[in-house]
UniProtKB/TrEMBL annotation:
Domain DOCKER: 1-301
Pfam families, per the entry: DHR-2_Lobe_B (PF20422), DHR-2_Lobe_C (PF20421)
Highest taxon of source: Eukaryota
The name this protein goes by in its record: DOCK1 protein
Biological process according to GO: cell migration; myoblast fusion; small GTPase-mediated signal transduction
InterPro entries found in the cross-reference section: DOCK, DOCK_C_lobe_C, DOCKER_dom, DOCKER_Lobe_B, DOCKER_Lobe_C
Residues annotated as signal peptide: none
Any one cellular-component term (Gene Ontology): cytoplasm
Alphabetized GO MF terms: guanyl-nucleotide exchange factor activity; small GTPase binding
Source lineage: Eukaryota, Metazoa, Chordata, Craniata, Vertebrata
Organism: Erythrocercus mccallii
Length: 305
């Protein structure tokens, strides 16, 4: 059994697998059969299937159905109407790593569980509250997040299961910044691990990721977070956010050692033709490193066996 299980994990690590998209589909109106009427289902798309192609495939099964243009839950006028209305949008699976992985495992195995054996899915919609700030869109960018929980884990016997529970949470602008920063750090770390595990990986995705973070002309970096949340005015008006502000500062500080490792790997693999690009990126990183370590302290990655 353990040999068999080891073979499965080896396949996960070595075999390239396309990541499928997941789609929430609602069937509204009295025109649908009772087993799907006014219910929401989560579908697992086929390999490399775009939402437009999935929708077209879905609508061929219900040629009289009208496609809804919004992602908001419909009102009773739609649900009680005699017609057929289909709502379809992409949802993001939520990683639920099995408890047996209590110690670090290969990034490929974690990636496998991001899209397999999943039961919770989320859809996020940006919502602006308060006065619009033309200089900093992050200051009042709230996220309205809907969580869908299916009856069974996907994939299963079927490629689709009914949603059994739905709940909504609001993510504040500061919480959104923390989440975005955490995702960015994870993305850098994951790509670094992939290159350490497989030296033959192409360098282009790593180049784009690193340059998009260290070059302020490309993405703007986290300077917008500093302008939005680290000012005396914000700290004075939101004393309850002290711990969250410290958390965001900590994530900013931790980004530096992750970037340093990524740029080290990039320097080892870069071609001579791209050497000037790499040197410019290094110069940008040095400026970023000096600024961050001066303001938020030094973090170091401790290597473990």
């Amino acid at each position: 059994l353990q040999r068999k299980q080891a073979q499965f994990y080896e396949n996960i690590v070595k075999v390239i697998r396309p990541k499928p998209d997941y789609f929430a589909v609602g069937y509204y109106g009295q025109g649908f059969p009772t087993f799907i009427r006014n219910k929401v289902f989560i579908y697992r798309g086929k390999e490399y299937e775009r939402r437009e192609d999935f929708e077209a495939r879905l609508l061929t099964q219900f040629p009289n159905a009208e496609k809804m243009k919004t992602t908001s839950p419909p009102g009773d006028d739609i649900k009680t109407s005699s017609g057929q209305y289909i709502q379809c949008f992409t949802v993001k699976p939520k990683l639920d790593l099995p408890s047996k992985f209590h110690r670090p495992v290969s990034e490929q195995i974690v990636s496998f569980y991001r899209v397999n054996e999943v039961q919770r899915f989320e859809y996020s919609r940006p919502v602006r509250k308060g006065e619009k700030n033309p200089d900093n869109e992050f200051a009042n960018m709230w996220i309205e997040r809907t969580i869908y929980v299916t009856a069974y884990k996907l994939p299963g016997i079927l490629r689709w299961f009914e949603v059994k529970s739905v709940f909504m949470v609001e993510i504040s602008p500061l919480e959104n910044a923390i989440e975005t920063m955490q995702l960015t750090n994870d993305k850098i770390n994951n790509m670094v691990q992939q290159h350490l595990n497989d030296p033959n990986l192409p360098i282009n995705p790593l180049s784009m990721l690193l340059n998009g973070i260290v070059d302020p002309a490309v993405m703007g970096g986290f300077a917008n977070y500093e302008k939005a949340f680290f000012t005396e005015k914000y700290i004075h008006e939101h004393p309850e956010d002290h711990d969250k502000i410290e958390k965001l500062k900590d994530l900013i500080a931790w980004q530096i050692p992750f970037l340093a490792e990524g740029i080290r790997i990039h320097g080892e693999k870069v071609t001579e033709a791209l050497r000037p690009f790499h040197e410019r990126m290094e110069a940008c990183f040095r400026q970023l490193k000096d600024k961050v370590e001066k303001q938020y302290g030094v973090r170091a990655i401790v290597s473990s066996l």
